[in-house]
Here is the input.
Amino acid sequence: MFGYRVPAPNEAMLISGGKHSSGASPFRVVTGHGAFVMPIFRKVRFLTLSMCEAEVTEVCVTKQAIALTVRAVIAFKVGNDTESIVNAGQRFLSDQDQMSVLTGRIFAGHLRSIIGSMTVEEIITERQKLATEVLDGSAVEMAKIGLTVDALQIQSIDDMKLGYIAAMAAPHNAAIQRDAQIAQAVANQTAAEAEQKSQRTQAEYARQTSIVQAQYRAEVEAAQAEAAQAGPLAQAKAQQEVIDARTELAQREAELRQQQLVAEVIKPADAEAERIRILALAEAEKMRVQAEAAASNNRVALDRMLIDQLPQIVKEAGRGLSGANVNILNGADGLGEMAAGLVGQGLSILDSVKRGLSTPPSPAPVPEENGQVTRPELTQS
Here is the structure.
């Protein structure tokens, strides 16, 4: 729009002409927005609000009368408030570059004043203190001209080749170099010890490796030898197991044979011995009866007794045949013949007994515990 002006974000628009409500301000200050300016009757100028820089290089004398060349950089700008803008506009609006020149002169004076009250050691070691005191000393003057300082940086301090600063730094340099040499020596020693330890470790590792390899080779050789003998050993073991099995089988067969022998031979023999013993006892008893009968000369009674005993004799003879293995070939006729034979045998036994009674009687046989019969010797009456 014709007559409407807008300042840049880093500028302050100063409108002069006409009446202002502030009264004390010779112009109207507009920032951050536009304003309508009547042509011909109003005049518009712009004041920068950007950051500015001023460099100071000043020869200053310390409290010790030692001259030092000090270089400093000041960062400043016009204040944001209306009063600062008015003050700066009245002084620098026609030549805004003069702000850096005037600021440098102000700070150079304060810098000489502050350094004059300090020693070289304080200036070197307390630069921040120096900058703070310079800023505090120049703050009032800078505010009067509408400027504010954002930062002050002491860039360098030079004793103009007098060697004072170098001499002051020499003890520290020597200590630092000494410490550096000691640290280097310690580092070298540590490195040497580490190298020696590494060599010892490598040697030990090599020794352990050789031992392990030797053990491994020995185990491999033993395994190979065992593998080579595994076949014969396994075969021998199998043969031994077969022999053991056969031995156990033979023992079992011997035990079974012994049981069979007891059942088939020993027990029947014992039974036969018992049978013989019983027969011997019966024979002894018979002979005792005969002796008694002969002694009484009672032939009739004896004959009668023998006749009565004939069936028993035949029966005993038949019982003796009961355990015999006899085969009858002609059936019932053969059985009858055998019975007749038994009766005839009984009669023959009876005749023999009668004939024996005609002879003097002999002592009766005495059976022993083992089943055998013994006869005592005859004695003359």
The longest strand covers residues 67-78. The beta strands are 4-5, 11-16, 27-30, 35-36, 43-48, 52-61, 67-78, 147-158, 366-367, 373-374. The CA atoms of residues 315 and 321 lie 10 Å apart. The helical segments are 82-92, 98-116, 120-125, 127-144, 164-295, 299-322, 331-357.
